[in-house]
């Protein structure tokens, strides 16, 4: 059998892939993250075991996957929020399985990267506005900031910050110190693509105050595309909004 | 009714979202790109009309969507390869619909960004190797290069280049001129996630020659993550590879 490293998508359970849902529905063991939608965990067969990795560190997760993977009669699905390879540490799990000689298959997921901004009416690339996108994570595994603020402040186009809500005041201060325009349009989108999605928009300098009430997961988008999109209520999630505007 | 802007994913038809496939199977009109898998076009209902946008420019596509969108009894699906908002010009279509007052819904797709590298054994972010990813498109709509090579050469972490195969010699020369290490690991992945996927790996300076035989769509990945992944035959597409290594 094979261990399947599957991305669950950004939140809305309808945004898992067709292949990913097939595998969840046919698994014997599901190892899942806290950010995976409960609706997807509920899709496992009656006989299957769902194992939350909530209290495990990454090394323990790797060992768990290798341990299950060695039982050749089990179909093991490792279900991770978003995409396993965009700040998801899927590479470490893939390498642990490869080192142990255990066959595995990657089934990518929709990253928050563009799906969450789109659900808030923001295209991360837009003709004439942004032809470059820079992705960083607000924190490294050791708690340090995961990027050089001078480089980030100089990057043209759109900045997308993952896992940055807690350190947002520090990040914005560093970007402004390195010359980023304080009036750059910015947005913070909490629980993107889910019914409880909430978006705040502000000039970059004001974003930390504007986003103070949000909770994780929250994606930060900085750049002129934030002012170039369409009204959130015309699009995205929840889908009924679009229908309501027609009535 | 609503116009649905749906991402088809990177190539493998199993990588469309559950929601996206539901909409394709229930549509009255499907407007699709050349890069969309024929298997997905075949999923429309018998009564539905499939319209290729192949010979239309972007303005004509926008007008077509508005025109179909005005017919309130039609469910219109606009199916685009990858994700509509990662160099997919989905923002222009969304704005055209918004300007015309036509309700629409965004259903994101899996971008090639991380899915295609992962199918070649390359994680675009990897602990201790890359905590920043920079995405650019090799060409703008007017044919000019879509980025500043000095900025790109200085960006740490992973570079992912879309639509860059034709201009790869020029792009690599510009990066090297601006000080990028010629030995930086690099890869070119053609037809990623499909059965005909083909990957070449080379030092950056050698990549244009190594990739000369590939055809579009090809994604370029530059950075130490290219040397940090797992063997391609252990993972990804076609899935039978993983099973074969077990036998």
Tag the structure with descriptive keywords.
28% helix; 247 residues; alpha/beta; five-stranded mixed beta sheet; five-stranded parallel beta sheet; 10 strands; 20% strand; homodimer; disordered C terminus
Question: Your description of this structure?
Answer:
Two copies of one chain form a homodimer. With 247 residues, the first copy, chain A, is of the alpha/beta class. The first copy, chain A, has nine helices and ten strands. Chain A has helices at residues 18-25, 38-41, 58-69, 90-99, 112-119, 149-154, 168-177, 207-210, 240-246; strands at residues 3-7, 29-32, 49-52, 76-80, 104-107, 132-137, 158-162, 185-190, 198-203, 218-222. In chain A, the strands form two sheets. Chain A has a five-stranded parallel beta sheet, with helices on both faces. In chain A, strands 6-7-10-8-9 form a five-stranded mixed beta sheet, with helices on one face. In chain A, helix 3 (58-69) crosses helix 4. Chain A is elongated, with a radius of gyration of 19 Å. Chain A starts with a strand and ends with a helix. Strand 6 (132-137) of chain A pairs antiparallel with strand 6 of chain B.
């Amino acid at each position: 059998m094979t261990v399947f490293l599957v991305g669950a998508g950004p939140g809305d359970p309808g945004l898992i892939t067709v292949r990913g849902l097939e595998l969840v529905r046919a698994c014997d063991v599901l190892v899942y993250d806290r950010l995976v939608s409960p609706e997807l965990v509920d899709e496992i067969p009656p006989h299957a075991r769902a194992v939350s990795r909530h209290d495990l560190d990454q090394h323990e997760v790797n060992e768990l996957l290798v341990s299950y993977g060695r039982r050749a009669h089990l179909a093991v699905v490792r279900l991770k929020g978003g995409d396993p390879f965009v700040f998801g540490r899927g590479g470490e799990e893939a390498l642990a399985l490869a080192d142990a000689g255990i066959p595995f298959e990657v089934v990518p997921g929709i990253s928050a990267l563009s799906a969450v901004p789109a659900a808030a009416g923001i295209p991360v690339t837009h003709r004439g506005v942004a032809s470059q996108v820079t992705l960083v994570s607000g924190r490294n595994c050791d708690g340090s900031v995961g990027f050089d603020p001078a480089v980030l402040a100089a990057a043209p186009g759109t900045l997308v910050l993952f896992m940055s809500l807690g350190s947002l005041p520090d990040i914005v201060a560093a970007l402004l110190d390195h010359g980023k325009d304080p009036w750059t349009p910015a947005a913070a989108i909490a629980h993107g693509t889910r019914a409880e999605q909430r978006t705040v928009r502000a000039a970059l300098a004001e974003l930390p105050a504007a986003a103070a009430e949000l909770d994780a997961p929250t994606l930060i988008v900085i750049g002129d595309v934030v002012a170039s999109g369409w009204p959130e209520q015309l699009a995205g999630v929840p889908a009924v909004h679009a229908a309501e505007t027609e009535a």
